[in-house]
Amino acid sequence: MAKKSYAFYPGCSSQLKASASNYLVSVNSMCRILDVQLTQIPDWNCCGASIAYAEGGELPRHAINARNFALAEKHLPGQDIVATCAACWLGARESKERLDVSSALMRETNEALAAGGLHYKAEVNIRHMVEVLIEDFGYEELKKPVVKPLENMKFAGYVGCQTNRPFGIDGESFENPKYLDKMVETLGGEPIGQYDQKVTCCGGALAFSEPEKSQKQIREIVESAYDHGADMIVTPCPLCQANVEIYQSEINKKQGTKFSMPVLYYSQLMTVAYGGSAKDAGLDGHVIPPRKLIDAASKK
Amino acid sequence: MASIATNQTILVVGGGISGMTAALEAAECGRQVILVERNTSLGGRTAQLYRYFPKMCHPTCGLEINLRRMKANRNLKVLTLAEIRSVSGKRGDYTVKIRLSPRYVNEKCTACGECARAVETEIPNPHDYGLGKIKAAYLPHAMAYPLRYVIDPSIIATEDGQRAKKACKYDAVDLEMKEELVEMKFGSVIWATGWKPYDASKIQPYGYDRYDNVITSIEFERLADPHGPTGGKLLRPSDGAEAKNIAFIQCAGSRDENHLRHCSRICCMASLKQSQYVSEKGESKSTIYYIDIRAIDRFEDFYRKVQEDPQVSFVKSKVANIQLDEKTGELILKGVDTEGYHRYEARHDLVVLAIGMEPESLGIPLPEDIITDSSGFMEGSKDLGQFGAGAASSPLDVNRSAQSATAAALRAIQSIYRTSSAEGGQ
Amino acid sequence: MMSEMKTAAYLCSGCGLGDKLDMASLSKVAQKAGKMAIVREHPFLCSEEGVKLIHDEIEKESVTHAVIAACSRRSKTEAFSFPETALSRVNLREGVIWVVAEGHEEIRQEMAEDYVRMGCAEVKKMKLPRGNPESGKEKNILVVGGGLSGLTSALEAAETGYKVVLVEKETRLGGWASKIWKRVPFSSPYNDPQNTGILELISKVSAHKNIEIHVNSAILETSGAPGKFVVRIGKAEGTETEVKIGAIIQATGFSSYDISKLPELGGGLPHVVDQAGLEQLAIKAEGKPIAREDGKPIRSVAFVQCAGQRDESHLPYCSGHCCATSIKQAMYFKDAHPEVDTVIIYTDLRTPGMGEDFYRSAQEKGVIFTKGKVSSVENAGEGCRLKFRDLILDEESTIEADLVVLATGQVPNSGVNIELPEERNQVSVLNLSYRQGKDMPQLKYGFMDSHFICFPYETRRTGIYAAGPVRRPMDMLQATEDATGAALKAIQAVENASLGRAAHPRSGDLSFPTVRLEGCTQCKRCTVECPFGAIDEDEKRFPLFNESRCRRCGTCMGACPVRVISFENYSIDTVGSQIKAVDMPDEFSEKPRILILACENDAYPALDMAGMKNRCYSAFARIIPVRCLGSVNTIWITDALNSGYDGVMMMGCKHGDNYQCHFVKGSELANYRMGKMDDTLKQLGLETERVTTVEVAITDHEKVAAFINDYAETIRIIGMSPMKGFG
Amino acid sequence: MSYRNDFLKEVEENVEEGEWVKMCMQCGVCAGSCPFGPHWEHSPQKIFMMIRAGERIQVLSSDSMWMCTSCYNCIVRCPRKLPITHIMHGLANYAHRLGLAPKGQPTRVFAKTFWDNLVKTGRVNELKLTLSHYFRDGFIQGIRNALAMKDIGLGMMKARRINPMELFGGHGLQDLEGFHAIVAKAREIEDRKKGLKNG
Question: D: neighbours with 3+ CB pairs under 8 Å?
Fold first, then answer.
């Protein structure tokens, strides 16, 4: 299959030594195996995430996203912008869609971009890595490179919010998206059935500002994974990953639970199933080490 | 049959309450009418209802009268298992192609039931929306007209088919029956093709596709009906336990731009009625979750009566989502009562979605000069030769459907009169 | 007549009848007891050959009266239809072999033989109905009321080729529709108010060659019957016209509820109007910003929904149109001047169907909706202060508005309520010369329909139909539909009348009641009890039957204490002879006989379905279908008891508020008459249990079996009737 | 004086997606769908009603909108397709810029910190973001907060998902001026539109 090339928008959390750096590591390994060429958008900036609105307001938010679009159009013409972070994808796509429908907003945005010597032609297409995998490859294609099926491992497919709503992945329902489960099956793992917390919000950015309220959410997400006999949680979103993984110790401390549920990215599962090492999959980047997966990776 | 149809004849498409009414009213004015029904027998959706609001009377009671009118009327011919394939031509001169599907049972059938006794195969009972099973040689229901058995195509080439044939002393079972395509002329057409329930599985937050104990209002009618799959007991599908605490969710699909833009009109009254099925079962409780209770005109009396029923409570709220308690099979409804902002997490053992109406699909493109509204309901043809009637023309309850069908019957007669008087006839 | 009678019985042995019954002895019964001239047995009577056999004998042997002993009269009805022959169907399949449990062969055979005897007895008492000779041929249609409904009915009937006489009490046509600025849209897009189109309609009607218009006129008298009404129309000036009419449509519309009865909502205050009042301001404004009566421009307006509606101290019902009407009126303001604040205060917003688009469109235009209950409206400064409970924000709230609009309801202009004493009444609309009263009976709140679910047009006056808001509350679109449908019913009525046939629900029935006046005691029960006001009194105070008004339910026959009223094919004798035909075992036989008189519309189908579903019941039952329990004459019951029946059960429809009787009053009257039965029983020295009445709905196939079996058990307990052998 | 449309008009003109407020039909599906719903003093649908009722201060000084986690449940379920999440964001932003939003509301404070952090380098520096957030209430409280979360911090560091070196520099844009110019211009246009003083 021919090499596929995309304008890559890793986002702040996926930077080296940032909270989702291991996501980036696994994505790179996964893409290497799938023969996907990711070229970072030169000098990309933050998307504003789901919290910039309060101080940033409307136009500044769209302007900074449009800056990334303009850079992509300029340096990587014709390539789809691919984000791995749910918030980046959502923030960027929201800006794009608002600009598409509002000529006034478009005019103002370009007025702002001009101040930075840039112009947005509205030619970009913004996609999430999951869309690329499902739409440009498809489960059958994704199955082919599997050399180490993830046998005897049960995964709770935690989709969360922002890859699911309001846009979501084509053909999936908002209330019961199945793509993570299908991916797990594709990789030879076992998805848990009726995971009722699959689209529950982890608190998102409010995990910082409203820890108690968020941790209540997180507790339910982890508990239900345990109830349904999952060994690990898998997610497509860095913020979900971070929140659900790192606050388990807090919850244990405050509420006497004994949570130790590893939370992984789909890309890590794929890397391992495709024969990558624990390091290639960034499995060393976890506060709660995914033992079962590490063992699987290290098996010859 | 084809011979009797002329440009003076009225075609009525659909044998539900609207189609029967339109056909009978026209025929009882002395007009020639042919009534075409896609299913095996007449009655349509009303024949699948247990009772009518607001009188709590039985649809089959009116059906009996209409059937007797029909049996007594020589101006009216009925074709069942008949589907319109195309309509061409203009007012006063329509050519209509009709596909007649085989019933595999001819007019010799005495409805003695021997074939059903002989056959072993069971199929999901279409009259009960598949909630129960029925023999593959069956009488559609106790009030079926024509009163004639049907043999399901699935057993035609099987031993069971042969068994049915052997069992019939009257040579009524004909496994060789073939589909036919007939062409007829008509002066005017009444489309009384009715409605179909919105696909409940599309309303994802309510999990109709995931939870056994979430059902639709039309399925609930079958549960309540003594002729239905549970003999009239309100048993929840998951475990057959009697449902004692039932939620009715209004606007399931209706008034929702993610689904149906329009209000389906009947759902509020249907739920009020169904809450009474529940109250009749002794201690059982109903909760009705609504946005606005649309009990138009004297239906208000019925609403008042239900409001006074201590076993029924009302919550002004569109339920946000439903979760399943896997241990008990109970459903947890989450939402907010917007009258003063009260949050709830209510447990119910059965949830009934007051499912919205959309126009029944005809399986053929409509004649291009027919005008439809934004939801696909039919306003009639520009040449004033074809008319929508009943729920095909708008989301209507039974009395408004009968009203609309009677009006359509006059318009059809009128258009024939116009044509013929223009031709110097009449 | 009798001399020409040639009888024949045809017994079918198909569908297992031959296996379960001794056909030979059934034939013998038909010959001997039944005295049938011809008796034939056939293995498959509904087959082509079977039916042909009957046809041929009707032809060649000139059979005039035939008994068909096979399946229920509800099965194979078309096959066994012989219009020129008096016919009795004996129900051996659904009524015997499908309902008698195995192991009761002997009593099952007795049951079948009794039914054959009964069929033979009945048919000999029957005459072939020839249709009402008094039928009127008049086909003109009278439309009373020149508003939207009346104009529509008139035009639709005229366009179908019928002559129409249109009577309007005001000096000009148009009614409410001509007193409003715009109407709620009838067709998509449902976004903006539309022109009423009333002027076009008026000019079409005025110009139509088939329509004769009387404005400024009223009905002085309506006499006669469908097909031959005579109507006197009086002009205000005093001139009078008499017209011959086939059928009548009453489209007298509604009056808007008097807002002065709503002082708490500001009814009567200068800046409080009802919806009609607002329309007048809108007409004055002609699309420009609406000003108040005092000329002050309106900057803010509040609409109060359900004003004096859905309220038992005013109008208990909902008028259905008011939400959409207020939305439309709020749009008047927003379309002319978007800065005007418009608030609609509702408890349930009722915009069914495509009305939802209209609701959304108003919101897009900036109309504000709030769920609340208004407690008071008072004068305040330049305008009004409105106090209400905000049900969403859960707080007391006030709105100050330049104008308040009260959405009051529709009060039907139905004329005289014949159930009320004269003095409490207003002027009559139709001035019917009917014995039972001047106007149509009303169902509830002055609306005059009767079966508003399946058969919305059926009133209790044959050939007279209500259309529009006088039938039930409705909006303009509904009224247009309704008026069109009513036009059809009127046309149908004149066509039926001209052929001497009955109207709904026994449409096509050619039988009609006759009375032997020489036996009449002038007790007036028939004239009082006829649910359809078909019977008047002549100058000698004898009942005067108007056959074309009659629905053939037989209530008069049931009412008559001297039994002088009968139909050709349904009479005291056709039923009485069946009762007597039953072979009565003696009291030591332990074989009780239970007579069941079952309403043919609901109970009898339920009994058939009990058979179809093999719900077994006692073989001691002898069931006779009746047109309606209202037609049951107590003589049948006393005869039955005298001739030794052990019990009599009547099965009829629900009566009372939500009556399900197709003849409205039939089952209620029967219930009333049976209430008096106890004394009779006591006189005969019998237990009161020996006569009972049960309510049966058509779906009660299980219940009917249970009713019969429980009753058989009761009879077993109280024992056999002591009357046996005396009858 | 309730149910004058002044505040509704103000919202329509100045709040992101504010023109949708009038379309709500009070079904309450948004309120029931919100994961932080129990913590809202006023649910979204109720806020829409308050706006129509003209309850300006109650709305703008409420901390309800600040509870939005941006989960978008309300948007996908709203039968009138109101972009509720964005309206909540818009209201929060408007209240914040008017200085009416509750003082010290944690999310408000965090959001400001986040934006400043973002604008500074063009990318978010998670460590500085975290620390400045912990130290929002002064040094002592900061130490407490930091200690409270130290396990997490250490864990993250072990997992090489926090880089202590970021305190001195870390990621940033090459064309930072260009970026700043764009942000400044955008802000200037928006403030002009909404009649807000630059602050």
Answer: A, B, C
- For chains C and A, tell me whether 3 or more CB atom pairs sit within 8 A of each other: no
- Region for C219 from its dihedrals, namely left if φ exceeds 0, alpha if ψ lies in -120 to 50, beta otherwise: beta
Q: Which of B339, B356, B373 is the last residue of a domain?
A: B356
Residue C414 has pLDDT above 60, yes or no: yes
Together in a domain, B221 and B304: yes
Which chain C residue has the Cα nearest residue B66?
C505
Task: Report whether B372 contacts B203 (CB < 8 A).
Answer: no
Could you tell me which residue, B282 or C116, shows the higher pLDDT? C116
Domain that holds residue A113: 4-129
Peptide bond into D38 cis (omega under 30): no
Query: Which range marks the domain in which residue C526 is found?
Result: 514-559
CA-based nearest residue in chain D for residue B290: D27
Cα dihedral C24→C25→C26→C28 (10° resolution): 90
* Predicted confidence (pLDDT) at residue C727 exceeds the cutoff of 60: no
Percent helix / strand / coil, chain A, rounded to 5: 50, 10, 40
For chain C, the domain total comes to 5
Residue C405 sits in the same domain as residue C417: no
Which CATH number covers residue A79?
A: 1.20.1050.140
What percent of chain C shows pLDDT beyond 70?
Answer: 99
CATH number for the domain that contains residue B188: 3.50.50.60
As given in the structure block, the two tokens for residue D192 are 């002009």
Query: In whole angstroms, what is the distance from residue C98 CA to residue C82 CA?
Result: 26
Model confidence pTM above 0.90: yes
Interval B48-101: pLDDT, tens: 999 999 999 999 999 999 999 999 999 999 999 999 999 999 999 999 999 999
Decide: C350 and C318 in contact? Cβ < 8 Å. yes
3-state secondary structure of B290: strand
| Inside any domain, residue A136 | no
A-facing residues of D in 143-182 (CB < 8 A) are 149, 151-152, 155-156, 158-163, 165-166, 171, 173-175, 177-179, 181-182
In a domain, B109, yes or no: no
* The pLDDT of residue D167: 59
Q: Same structural domain for residues C603 and C703?
A: yes
Q: Which residues of A touch D76 (CB under 8 A)?
A: 165-166, 174
Q: Is-contact C343 C302, C-beta < 8 A?
A: yes
Q: Residues C319-367: pLDDT tens digits? A: 999 999 999 999 999 999 999 999 999 999 999 999 999 999 999 999 9
> What residues contact C552, with CB distance under 8 A and at least 6 apart?
C502, C506, C509, C511, C512, C513, C567, C627
Contact B21/C662 with Cβ under 8 angstroms?
Answer: no
Q: What is the CATH number of the domain that holds C614?
A: 3.40.50
- CB distance D2–C371 less than 8 Å? no
Residue numbers of the domain that contains D188:
106-194
Percent with pLDDT over 90 in chain D: 70
Give the mutation candidate from D36, D93, D118 for the A interface (greatest A CB count, under 10 A): D118
User: Any chain D CB within 8 A of the CB of B341?
Assistant: yes
Same domain, A239 and A108: no
pLDDT of residue C425: 65
Residue A135, in any domain of the structure: no
Number of domains in chain D: 2
pLDDT at D1: 56
Residue C423 clears pLDDT 70, i.e. is over it: no
Q: State the total domains in chain A.
A: 2
Q: How far is D50 from chain B (nearest CA, A)?
A: 12
**D11 vs A contacts (CB less than 8 Å):** none
Q: Which domain holds residue B334?
A: 199-356
For residue A202, pLDDT over 70 is answered with yes
The whole-number pLDDT of residue A187 equals 98
Give contacts of A 169-228 with B, CB under 8 A: 173-176, 194, 196
Structure confidence at residue D67 (pLDDT): 96
For strand C621-626 and strand C594-599, is the pairing parallel, antiparallel, or unpaired?
Answer: parallel
